[in-house]
Structure formats: C-alpha cells, structure tokens
Amino acid sequence: MTKHEKILKYIKDLKVGARISVRQLAQDLKVSEGTAYRAIKDAQLRGLVSTIPRIGTIRIEQAEGEDIEKLTYAEVVNIVEGSVLGGIAGLHKPLKKFLIGAMELRDMQQYVEQGDLLIVGNRKQAQILALNMGAAVLITGGFHADDDVVRLADEKEMPLITSPYDTFTVATIINRAIFNRLLRKDVIRVKDIMVRDSYYLDVKSTVGDWRKLLRATRHSRFPVVNSDGEVIGIVTTNDVADLKDELPIVEIMTKNPIVVSPDTPVAHAAHLMVWEGIELIPVVEGRKLVGVISRQDAIRAFRSLSFQPQVAETVDSLIMSHFSVSKTESGVKLHGKTGPIMLSPYGITSYSSLLTAMANAAFEAFRSKKRLEIIPDSFTVYFSRPVQLEEEIEINVDIIEMGRKSGKVEINLFHKGNLVAKAIMSVKVLSR
Q1: Which fold has domain 1-61?
Q2: How far, in Å, CA of 362 to CA of 359, rounded?
Q3: Domain 315-429 falls under CATH 3.40.50.720
Q4: Which regions of the chain carry the CATH code 3.10.580.10?
Q5: pLDDT per residue over 127-185, tens digit each?
Q6: Whether the Cβ atoms of residue 390 and residue 348 lie closer than 8 Å to each other
Q7: What is the CATH number of domain 63-185?
Q8: CA triple 21-24-26, angle to 5 deg
C-alpha cells in the first residue's frame, strides 16, 4: 500500500465531523506535508472531506450515488460564501429541504422539520425555534447571532451560518446548486454499469492462461495487471493469434492501454471505444483495476437511458421543447418557433442554438430508423441569413447514407420558405 493510499484509508476511518489539517496529518503518519496535501485534495474529490473557510477541513459523510442531489451543510457554507457561527459538529449532515423564514413564528412551527435549513434574517426567536426543532439556520444580510443562539447551535450540533447575501439571492444560489446536482444525477457513469471483479491476467501469465480464460468465460479481451494490481496492458485475440502457450503475456500485450475512471460518463467511454476501434476499456482507481466496461455495456446503458424520464432540463431539451417532430419518407421534419432561450447578445436567434436544433434534428432522424446509439463524427454547416426571435422555422433532415457502422444526413433549415442554413452530419454507429 502506497503512502497516498494509507493516508486515504486513515481519513476514511476518521469519525464524521473530525477536523483534518495538512500539518497534523503529516506528523501523525510521518509523511511530507506535500504528500498529505495531495491526499486531502484527493479525499475532497472522493467526497470524504470538505474544506470550509475559517473552519478548515472536516470529515464528512460520503454521499452515495442515489443521494447526489442532497447537499451537506458544509457545501451550503461554501456556495453562499458564508461563515459558520456555531454547530460545527453538524456540518457533515445533509439538508432535507430549505425554507425561507418570512412568516409568523406560530406558522413557522408547521413547516420546519428536523434536518431542514431555515433561511432567515436577523430574527432571533425564529433562529432559536429552528434550532430547537433540529434544523440548521442560515442568517442572511451578513448579520451575526447572539451568544446564546450560538451556544444552542453547538448544543444541538446543527450549523448556524451567516451569509453576506440577501435572502432571495441565497435561496437562488442553493436552488441552482441542487438543480446542477440533479443534472449530474442524470448522467450515467461508468461505475453505474461496469463489470466489477472482472477477469484479468498478471505479469506471470502466459498465452496458455489467456486461452484457459477464453474457454472459461467466452471473453477474448483481458486487462493485464502488475503485482500491485495496476493496469499495465491488455490482451485480445489479435495479440495472441497462433502463438505458443508458453509465451509470456507481457511480451505480446498492448502496453499502456486506454483506461477510464468509475466517474467517467458512459458516453465518453463509448466515444473512446468507437474512435479508437476497441471493444473493452479497463476501469481504474489510482491506476488499480476495479472493473471493465465493454461496448455491449455502453449500448445497453444508452438504450435504457432513451426510455428514462429526465429529472432536470438541459439546454438541448429547452431548445427542442419549441419544436414538434414528424416523420418523413427519408428522415424527419421539425417545425417550431424560436424562443427567448435561443436569444443571442445581439437580439436575434443565436447561431449556436440553431446548430443545437439542427444537430438534435439529425439525431431524431436516426432514432426514427431505430438507430439509437450514434456518435457524431463530423458536422459541417453553412449559414446564409439571420433569424429573428418568435419566428417560425422548419428543419428538414434527410438520411442520405446509413450503414452498419456509419451514417450521413443532410439538414436544411428554412425560414419563411427561404433556406437559412444547410449542413451535412456524419455519424458513427455504436455497434456490437
């Protein structure tokens, strides 16, 4: 186990809420401060710790994938550029919901629950009420709290936070942070679909060992790892060919293979497989093998995703919501009106939003032919004139080529019967 891994294990074993410093970590584990600093940054990326201004770094509860939309109070402090006045021991806790304290105290009791965050101004009684009910308090406007309120926050182990922003701004910032997390939750990552505990070969393996795994698993591609479990190569049927069984794997393997991490989006891994012409990618954490992902895995994920409702809206979905889609003999036709979401800084429909509409129209054309798993390869577009807002446009997409591994479409955008833009898009099909 490396020093870096030992430090991460030490951090993971700490009690939630414990404070961590570079200097103390270096002294306790007899490592350099640089090594300790890098490990703390890695732990922060893994969701093990959170660094808060004027408080320091604390151990937090590691969020599971299904709870990605939940913010901890420590994260709230950072996003509202706040300061912690009390209740530091509860910073690691996730908040259930936030409320704005613009109501009478007797009404507030009906809404505030344990684990909430009450956003309120300089209202002492409201602050005390929330803390006594097991909720955290965020004081807006840069106000501070009385000493007895701070003591109550420490006693209840619920954060008491102050932010320089007004109540509306704070609520907007927190809502945006939750929205961004919902978007990230929609992204399928490698860790969601990868094969864990995958078969592999090591530096002592031979071609004969590869053939034994082939017969046992019916798979033909295996990562090669060293004595530390780090991926150093990959072996496929093309590497082995008609070689003798006793030949060492390390002599014929493909060295330094492409790898991805568990947090890599599946779409990115699929693009790599298509562009590089490979069928399987090892998944690593700190260079150590933790699983593999294949083209088949990616295809299944894409097909599943195409039938899932989206939790949050993206720019693409907002733009495409302005259009209706109808099938044609050779592709699809989109009809709709340009809206405010498509506005450019110059007061006309932005070219980037029109590009988005045209690209998505091409995707719809391939979907209409049951080719769901496509990856853009090239996109050439020519514009002839601008389009004003609130104007009706039509996008016609004709499939001019569709093979087993690739396809091509012609896209024409019309405004009032005039050709505004013409494009050619070629795609690659993510085939088995």
Answers
A1: Arc Repressor Mutant, subunit A (1.10.10)
A2: 5
A3: no
A4: 191-303
A5: 999 999 999 999 999 899 999 999 999 999 999 999 999 988 888 888 877 766 655 55
A6: no
A7: 3.40.1390.20
A8: 105
Query: Residue 305: which pLDDT band, with cuts at 50, 70 and 90?
Result: low
Q: What is the pLDDT of residues 59-117, one digit of tens each?
A: 876 554 444 456 788 888 888 888 999 998 888 888 888 888 888 888 888 888 899 99
44-58 burial, b if ≥16 CB within 10 A, otherwise e? eeeebbbebeeeebb
- The pLDDT, as a whole number, for residue 408 is 94
- 23 in Cβ contact with 33 (< 8 Å): yes
Per DSSP, the three-state class of 85 is: strand
Q: Which amino acid, 392?
A: E
Q: Pairing relation of β-strands 136-139 and 160-162?
A: parallel
- Report residue 149: phi and psi, to 5°: -70, -40
3-state secondary structure string across 46-57: CCCEEEECCCEE
* pLDDT surpasses 50 at 416: yes
So what's the architecture of 191-303 in CATH?
Answer: Roll (3.10)
pTM above 0.70, yes or no: no
Q: What integer pLDDT is reported at residue 61 of this predicted model?
A: 67
Q: Residue 122 in contact with residue 141, Cβ under 8 Å?
A: yes
Residue 248 — very low, low, confident or very high, per pLDDT cuts 50/70/90?
A: very high
Number of H helices, E strands in the chain: 15, 21
Task: Take residue 326 and report the two structure tokens written for it.
Answer: 């109808």
- For residue 295, give the 3-state DSSP assignment: helix
Helix (H) or strand (E) holding 415: strand 406-415
Cα 154 from Cα 147, distance rounded (Å): 11
Cβ pair 57, 49 in contact under 8 A: yes
Q: How much is the average pLDDT of 5-29? A: 85
Residues of the chain with CATH 3.40.1390.20: 63-185
Domain with CATH 3.10.129.10 in the chain: 315-429
